[in-house]
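Researcher: Let's try something more involved. This one mixes different molecule types, so please make sure each is placed in the same coordinate frame as the others.
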Amino acid sequence: MLPARSQEAAAAGGTYSYCSRPRALPARRRYRGAPAPKEEPVRYGNLMYDRRVVRGNTYALHVLPWTAQPDPLEIQRQREAHRKALARKRAKEQLQSRTPEPVEGRKHVDVQTELYLEELGDRIIEVDVECQTDAFLDRPPTPLFIPAKTGRDVATQIEEGELFDFDIEVKPMLEVLIGKIIEQALLEVMEEEELANLRAHQYAYEELRNAELAEVQRLEEQERRHREEKERRKNQQAQLLQKQKETSEKIAARAFAQRYLADLIPSVFSSLRDSGYFYDPVERGMCYFFLT
Amino acid sequence: MAHARISARLPPDIDPTKAPIAFGERALPKLQEELQAPALLTRQRALMALCDLVHDPENVYQAVTLGFLDNLKYLLLDEDSTVRQKTTEVLCIMATHNVGRDGFIKNGVIPALSQLLNDPVDICRRNMHRAFEMMAELPTGAVGIVESNLISSLVLKLKTELDEIQELILDTLSGCLRVEAFEALATGAVPILKEKLTHPSVAIRSKAARALLGISVPQEGKNIVWDEEVIPVLVGLLEDSDPEVRANAAGALMNATITTQGKYAALTADAIPPLLKLVDDETSKVRLNVIKALTMLSEAPEGRKTLLNHVGLFRERLNDSSDAVSRAAKIAIQVIEWKP
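Model: All components are placed in one shared frame. Result:
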């Protein structure tokens, strides 16, 4: 089968050549002994038993598993050779003297200098576009959701003078306020005036009272003095009288006594003589002597 | 709790230190409740509002009937000095009204006030003394002060208090001496008053002379005045520049010379010439007191002898503008020309 298919594949041309064109695989004969159907060969097979399907790991796979199995060593050598070639090329490029560096402000550009310009058709105009999110940009805050206004707008404005008239309204209030203030002030002033009047009254009264009181006391005192004086004089007089009386009584008594007693002594003496109290002591002595 | 105020910022012309006064009848009862509040600020504000209200006599009457005086008595002993100050001010204003004074006597405010005699704040003491002075003008009030045994403390305070307050105390004493002088005499008021007679302040001199006038009305007063030799000082005051001082000094002399010993003390102090000079003084009180004093002095024979030469002065005074003076002049002439 293989060669037929490869021929067909080569004849197809194009970019890709199949080793075997993809086809639907024929159904496998169920029974061994059953003869194959003679109609067109239905070349269907079971995917699971197809040797062309790769099985197992696909990431550690050889690059070209369907070609002749090359020596792994051979592959390695190939790769190394490739690498060396690249390196040689790079070195050669560097050693090669190139056109001088562009002057500041200028740039070297490849330009066709042949006689007939070729349109570089296979050069695709490339435009580099980059897009990069800014680092560290936070999600911006969600904008306020202001739902659209529904309904009708109605406005009203109170003009000056429409609500009330200040001057008229304020009058009664002012009157009350001022009335109260003046009332309080008047009260206090009247109080002071009253007090002043009272004091003036009291002053005048006190004056009179003191004078009258002094007068009363003076008269009292005068009375007392006069009375005392009278008493004293009376007493004096009484004493005087008493003394006088006493003196006169004394005198009378003395006179009387004198008179009374004037007679006394002779009569006493005479009676005594009569009773014999006066005796001659010599005579008495003689008698006594002789009698006893 | 809902307040009557709408916003936290008060209107510009309101006085924030006063409590708002309720309307009409409720004003005083509400203030009474606020006076008993435990918060200091409430009490202070209520007192300030009360001070204003008490100028009206009707409010005083209502306050006394509501029993404000008990609350005020309690607040007199508060620790905060503003409260005490305002309370004494309220009581002082209430004492200027007769209703208030009667209320004071009935509720025994005088002993409560006397507890503030030694208060450290000057204004409290001054208001308290003002209240006492107003009370002493009334006879029953003076009796009340005497009965609370305040006279001795007042006399002793005379020595230590400020001048302003001394004036008030002297006035109070003058009022009380009309009722009863013994206690004052017992506390030794006469020497203190004698000292005050030579005080630099005119008001104190005149009030001290007035107090001496009052004190020398009873007999013991006259004797003590003669004992303390106040009479020469009084004679000196007769030449003072203030008419009040002269009038009161002449009055005190008038009372002191009623006793014989007083008369002779005055005569030895040579009282007659200054007294004669003052017979023509402008103030009627001076003339009256002077004529009376001369009458007293003319009861003594020496005085009579001297005054017989000046009877002319008295005759001029017979037609004086003041009735009392002309009567006094007549009596003086009678006495001078009396023959035993």
